[in-house]
Design a protein that fits this description.
about 25% strand, Sacchrp_dh_NADP-bd (chains A, B), 2 domains, Saccharopine dehydrogenase, NADP-dependent (chains A, B), Dihydrodipicolinate Reductase, domain 2, alpha/beta, Rossmann fold, homodimer, NAD(P)-bd_dom_sf (chains A, B), Sacchrp_dh-like_C (chains A, B)
Chain lengths: ~400, ~400
C-alpha cells in the first residue's frame, strides 16, 4: 500500500505519528501547501515517509502527485473545501480514497431551516456509479465523527438491537487550555461550517430535514468523569451516512458545544465573520472566516496546555435482540495527557486521526474491502473495533 | 475661517451638509485617503467646498495640505488612531485644531482593571504648554460625547448646582435597522476601542481608576419615548475631561449597549478579533478589527433603513443653587427620520457632526476663544447651547 496523505495540519501530523508504528504500508507521501509543515510532520518517523507540496484545490495537482509516487490510497486530511478536487484527483489516478469529512452542503434557497438543499456528501454520492464501475473505493467519513461513530451504529444494529428507535451521535469533552480564556481544540473553520449550517435530522417516512442552528438542546451525560454537557443539533455527516446502511426510525447528531461557544458562534454569524466570501480590507481581499482562524491559536499546537478528556460516541435506543427495551452509549474517550505522552498529539486530533489509519490497515489486510462511495457503516464493524483496541485505544459501552 | 476637514466618512460627510447651510467660514477642504469619498461628500454643496486626498497617518502630509490651502482650523473626523499625526500636523502649520475623540489610551501593564495606564488624551495634554505658548487652540472632544455632554456638565455647574455629587454621561437609543439582525449605527472600530478598554471612573480624592469592562450595569430611563436601556461603564473622554474644569465628587460614563451588543463584543474579544495588530491570513497581513469593520455594513449608509431616536446626555445629582437635593438629565435627542429628511444623514453621525460645526462658528464669531489644549467644558456653555438650538436641534432637560 502506497499512501498519499493530503494535509499536514493537526490531524494529518497525528496520523503520521500513529501510522509510523504500523507496518502495513510501504510508503506515505505527506503533502501540504506549506512544505515546511509537511517536513515537520514526517521528521523523525523514518524513510517510509516523504514530504511534498500540493495545491489541494487542484484535481490535476493531486492526480500528478499520485502518479509520481504510484499511490494506491489517498487520505484527505484538509478542510472540507478541498474534498472534491482530492476525491476527483484520486479517482483520475486510479487510487482509492478516504476522507474524514464529506463534500459541503448548501442550504435550501428559500426554506433553509426546514428543508435540505444540497446535502453533505451529495456531490460524492453523485459519483458513486463511476467509482463502482471502475472497481475503486471511496471510503468517506472515516475519522472519529463521522467514522467510529458510524461503526458504532452498525455494530449496535448487527449485535445489540432488533429494532432501533433512535441513533444519536453525541460528542462532548471537558477540555480546558491553560492560559487561554477561549481556545477551540479543533479547526474553527470546520466548527463554524458544521455549527452554523442548518442541522440535519433523519426520520423514517420523512427522510432528511433541517432545523434552526443550535436546536433541541439536551443535557447528555458523558462517561469517564466528563459528566453532563449541554448538546445541540449540528449538521454532521453521520446523519447523512447512517440511514443509507442502518435501519433506524430517527438519526441525529448533537454536539456538546457549551453555552459560551454557542454564544461566540452566534456573535461571529451576526457580524458576518463566518463568511467565506472575501471582503476588501484596505485594498486586500480576505475571507472573514480565515481571519477568525488566524486570530485564534492553532489547536494542533495547544496540546501541552490542554487538560481533560474528549468523548465521541453513539447513543442507541430501541428493542434488544431479546425483545426488551434497551438503551446504550457506545463511546471512545481519549485523555489528552495520554495522547500527548504517547504520541505528542493532542486528544482531539489524535482521536480523529487514529480511525483512518485503522481503516487503511483493514484495507491493506483485506479485512475491509468494497467498491463505490461507502460510509464506515457499510463495512463490518467488529474488525474495526478490535483493531482500534489493538492500537491501544479501547472503546466502551454503557447500558442506560 | 479656512477649515480642513480630515475624514469624509459618516461624521465628516454630515459635517459638510451641516456647514453648507452656514456662512461663518470662507472655505472647507474635505480630505480623505479615498478621493472619491471626499468628492461625494462635497458634491452639491457649492464652491466653498474642495475635495482632496490626505494620508491622515502622516503629520507632514497634514501640515502640507494646511499650508497649501492656508488653513486656519483643522477638524479631525477620522478614527482616533490618527489623532496625533493630525494634531501635530495642524500645530506645525500654525492652525487651530478640533477633534471628537482624543489620543488613545494604553491599559496599565499589570493592573489594567483597577489602575489607569496611559489615559485618553494624555498625549495631547502633554503638548498643552506648547499650544498655549504658541497662542494656538486645540479644542478636544467636541463631538456629541465627548462634546455636548461636556458642555451640559459645565452648564449644570454654572447654572443649576452649588455642589455636585455625580456627573454621569448616559447614552442610549432605540434605533433599529430594517433588514439587518445586527448593524451597529456607529463606527465598530471606535465602539470596540471604547468598550473593550478598561472603563475609567473619576472620584474626588481618588482620581482616575479603572474597572472591568461592562461594569456597574444600571437601567437608565431615556426621554422622548426611548425608555429604559441597560447601560454599563465604558472608557470615554468625558471622564478625563470634565474633572479638569468642573468640580464634582464622581464622574462616570455609561453606554446603553444592550445585552446583545455586549455579548457580541465579548465574543469578538475572546476570539481576538478586536486586535489591531495584523495577523497573517494566507500570506496577507490584515488587522482583525479592520476585518470586523469590513464584514459589517457601513453605518453611514444605513440611514434609509434606520428607525428610532438616539439620545446623548448628562445626568447630574447634587445640591441646587437654593441648597435643595436636585437631580437632572440634560439631553439631546435626534430622530433618524428628521435627520434623514432634513440632511440626508443618519441620526448618530448627524448628532456627532453638528457639534464641531457649532463650535467652529463660535470660534469664528469670537463667542468662544482660548489657547492651549482645552475640553468643551473649559468654555462658556450658554453660547453653545443657544447656537445649537439655532441650528434647529434643541436640547432638553428633565428634573428627576
Amino acid at each position: 500500500m502506497r499512501i498519499l496523505l493530503v494535509g499536514a495540519g493537526g490531524v494529518g501530523s497525528a496520523a503520521v505519528a500513529i501510522a509510523a508504528r504500523r507496518s502495513f504500508f510501504e510508503t506515505m507521501v505527506v503533502a501540504d501547501h506549506d512544505l515546511d509543515r509537511a517536513v515537520r510532520a514526517v521528521a523523525g518517523h523514518g524513510d517510509r515517509f516523504v514530504a511534498a507540496t500540493v495545491d489541494a484545490s487542484s484535481t490535476e495537482a493531486v492526480t500528478a502527485l499520485c502518479r509520481e509516487h504510484r499511490i494506491t490510497h489517498v487520505l484527505n486530511a484538509v478542510d472540507p473545501r478541498f474534498v472534491m478536487p482530492i476525491f476527483d484527483g484520486a479517482f483520475a489516478a486510479g487510487a482509492d480514497y478516504l476522507d474524514m469529512a464529506m463534500s459541503l452542503s448548501r442550504p435550501h434557497p428559500s426554506r433553509p431551516w426546514s428543508e435540505t438543499g444540497v446535502k453533505l456528501g451529495d456531490e460524492q454520492f453523485a459519483a458513486a456509479d463511476r467509482w463502482e464501475t471502475a472497481g475503486r473505493l471511496a471510503l468517506c467519513g472515516i475519522g472519529i465523527e463521522p467514522g467510529l461513530s458510524d461503526v458504532f451504529a452498525r455494530y449496535a444494529a448487527d449485535e445489540l438491537f432488533d429494532e432501533i428507535d433512535e441513533i444519536g451521535v453525541r460528542d462532548g469533552a471537558n477540555l480546558t487550555v491553560d492560559g487561554y480564556d477561549f481556545a477551540p481544540s479543533f479547526s474553527i473553520w470546520t466548527t463554524i461550517e458544521e455549527c452554523l449550517n442548518p442541522p440535519v435530522i433523519w426520520e423514517a417516512g420523512r427522510g432528511w430535514f433541517t432545523t434552526e442552528p443550535f436546536s433541541e438542546p439536551e443535557v447528555f451525560h458523558f462517561p469517564e468523569g466528563i459528566g453532563p454537557v449541554e448538546c445541540v443539533n449540528v449538521e454532521h455527516e453521520e446523519v447523512l451516512l447512517i440511514p443509507r446502511w442502518v435501519e433506524a426510525k430517527r438519526v441525529t447528531f448533537k454536539y456538546g458545544l457549551g453555552d459560551e461557544f454557542i454564544e461566540v458562534l452566534k456573535s461571529l454569524h451576526k457580524v458576518g465573520l463566518d463568511a467565506t466570501t472575501p471582503v476588501t480590507v484596505r485594498g486586500v481581499q480576505v475571507s472573514p472566516r480565515d481571519v477568525v482562524a488566524a486570530a485564534l491559536p492553532d489547536p494542533a499546537t495547544l496540546g501541552d496546555r490542554m487538560r481533560g478528556k474528549t468523548c465521541a460516541g453513539t447513543w442507541v435506543r430501541g428493542r434488544s435482540t431479546s425483545g426488551e427495551p434497551r438503551e446504550v452509549y457506545l463511546y471512545h474517550v481519549v485523555d489528552n495527557e495520554w495522547s500527548m505522552r504517547e504520541y505528542g498529539h493532542q486528544a482531539v486530533v489524535w482521536q480523529t486521526a487514529v480511525n483512518p489509519v485503522v481503516a487503511l490497515e483493514l484495507l491493506a489486510t483485506g479485512a475491509w474491502s468494497g467498491t463505490g462511495v461507502l460510509g464506515p457503516e457499510a463495512l463490518p464493524p467488529k474488525p474495526f473495533l478490535d483493531l482500534l483496541t489493538g492500537y491501544g485505544s479501547p472503546w466502551g459501552m454503557e447500558e442506560r
